[in-house]
Design goal:
Two copies of one chain form a homodimer. Chain A has twelve helices and eleven strands. The first copy, chain A, has about 350 residues and is α/β, with parallel strands linked by helices. Chain A has an eleven-stranded mixed beta sheet with strand order 3-2-1-4-11-10-5-6-9-7-8, with helices on both faces. Chains A, B: Its EC number is 2.3.1.274.
Chain lengths: ~350, ~350
């Protein structure tokens, strides 16, 4: 297998280096062709690595940076003032071609802003999108985008999102002719706001996209579509509302467990199953969201992620490198722009 | 207690008269001061009532209508062509002051369109909203609006929604100075689209609203706010996404129950609890959503509702009559419009 290089933001995330270091070690031990560039405070990283034995040191390159982007820092301030940060460095390594992809568990807003500035968007793409896969009751996952990269999207941007989501589903998930749905308040043609109606017109006119029409909020989880497209405002709120509901259900089960012996027993038995299901339906916890539409691969792991979750994000990045997602998006959008009437 | 009259759309809902008749009977038996006007096909209603004994017939008035609005009928067609429908009649009874409120489990879009046409909005209110209460992990419920009455809302309309939600929380739920949050993709001032930012400015300038700032999707269920305001596009999608997730979790538990003896046992024990919780977090199933901002009280029960759920919607309507919700909204908006700079 050919060599593959990923730049890892070691300072990002709520839990910082202890978690990022463990994830890095797990990753290089699992994949012998993986080379990691660990960006961050070199003393901390070196010290952290000392507690592991049998490390393939040649595949764990450390790149020192003086700064780190704080989790609550304003994106504009991070962009201006954190030019020697671990987050900035991993993006620059991708831009310079020294890394095939980068992964960060840091501040999402700062990562979005910096990635857009450092990597720029692909030709034909106006704005990057944050995309993640979610479970469905069907056999396959569904890709939902945008999860919050852009809160003001016109129909042209939504069209580009449909193209990008389609490429992700086809290349990463291996779905042939992925069914693309547009998130709306009803399935009828007359429903929705102007932005959605206009996007539907564009998508219907392009044979290269398998557009299946409007889908409703509940359809996200039914497997009706392989890709669900919406703007970052709606996508972010829908995803977070689901996260909130998941937590509420867990809390409710805990609450009833105090009531009487029977419910207590039942709830205690139910909790492990529920936690497992919650982890599966809460992509933030187990998965990385990808920032797509850029001239490089950027995977965002949840700030509160464990080393296993961060490892998952590294695997996601490796998979996108393998499938050459940015190149595929570039080709697809070029082809479709020629198809459009 | 004073006499209270509610007009009930007997033909609405997926299950039709058998369910609406049972709900009507349950309601008049539970509340001796309740008078119901049953609108619909008088033969069917009379025949349906025959299977019940000891009915307070004087409090069950039947009003014959020739037509019914179909569940999949286009709202514009229902408005034009169904002037002698049970749905239209219940709204007219409210408009004429013959009923204090009306309840329908029929086609939501048609009900919205007809109610807006027949009842008109209150002075100071441009558009009605669909509102419902949801459970939280806190002690109190949260009111979420708009759930889909208007997909294009400017900041003026969102301000009016904040006022209406505040009145509902105060009058119906009994919360003093309800905390009003504006749904957004982040809590920071700089987040969000222009519409949300402008609404935040308006809400911050009005002392009569206890505006607590932006809340995120997951905050809907945490009890952080008593009222969460958003436009009908976002509210509808967020609510339905939660409904979809709830169903997915139920299905997942059923699925794992086939795996081995232990998970099967655990899942079977967990299912009843989960179903109960799902019913609690799925407002469509147990509750009525109210159409507010009109010169009259309109409660919408879920189309697939059972007689118990429809009874719940009737109680909700009775409660809103008791608290004089439309009058309170009218006074509140008048006061606040004077407060505004």
């Amino acid at each position: 297998m050919t060599h593959l290089t990923i730049a890892l933001d070691m300072m990002g995330g709520d839990n910082g280096p202890p978690v990022t270091i463990e994830a890095a070690v797990l990753a290089v031990k699992e994949y012998s062709h993986l080379h990691l560039i660990l960006c961050g405070d070199s003393d901390i990283i070196r010290h952290g690595l000392e507690s592991y034995s049998d490390l393939p040191e040649k595949r764990l390159e450390i790149l020192h940076t003086e700064q780190k982007v704080e989790m609550d820092e304003r994106p504009s301030s991070a962009l201006r003032n954190k030019q020697d940060s671990s987050m900035r460095r991993v993006l620059e390594l991708v831009e310079q071609g020294r890394a095939d992809a980068c992964v960060s568990a840091g501040n999402t807003g700062a990562l979005l802003t910096m990635a857009y500035y450092v990597l720029k968007t692909l030709p034909g793409i106006d704005r990057p999108a944050l995309i993640s896969s979610l479970p469905t009751s069907g056999r396959q996952k569904v890709y939902l985008l945008d999860l919050g990269a852009n809160v003001n999207c016109d129909s042209e941007i939504l069209f580009q999102y449909a193209v990008m989501g389609s490429v992700m589903a086809e290349e990463v998930e291996g779905i042939s002719k992925p069914r693309v749905g547009l998130l709306n308040v009803g399935e009828e043609q007359i429903k929705g706001n102007d932005q959605v109606k206009h996007t539907a017109q564009i998508l219907s006119s392009v044979p290269g996209i398998n557009y299946i029409g409007y889908v409703e909020g509940n359809d996200i989880f039914t497997g009706k579509a392989d890709v669900v497209v919406t703007d970052g405002f709606v996508g972010n709120i829908a995803l977070k509302a689901c996260e909130g509901l998941g937590k509420l259900i867990l809390n409710e089960v805990k609450r009833v467990s105090g009531k009487n012996l029977l419910t207590r027993m039942m709830a205690r038995l139910a909790l492990p199953i529920l936690r497992k299901i919650y982890a599966r339906v809460n992509p933030d916890q187990y998965n990385g969201a990808s920032l797509i539409g850029l001239r490089g691969i950027v995977v965002k792991s949840h700030g509160n992620a464990s080393s296993e979750a961060l490892l998952y994000a590294i695997k996601e990045a490796m998979h996108e490198v393998d499938r050459q997602v940015p190149t595929k998006i570039k080709h697809k959008i070029e082809t479709l722009l020629m198809e459009r009437p």
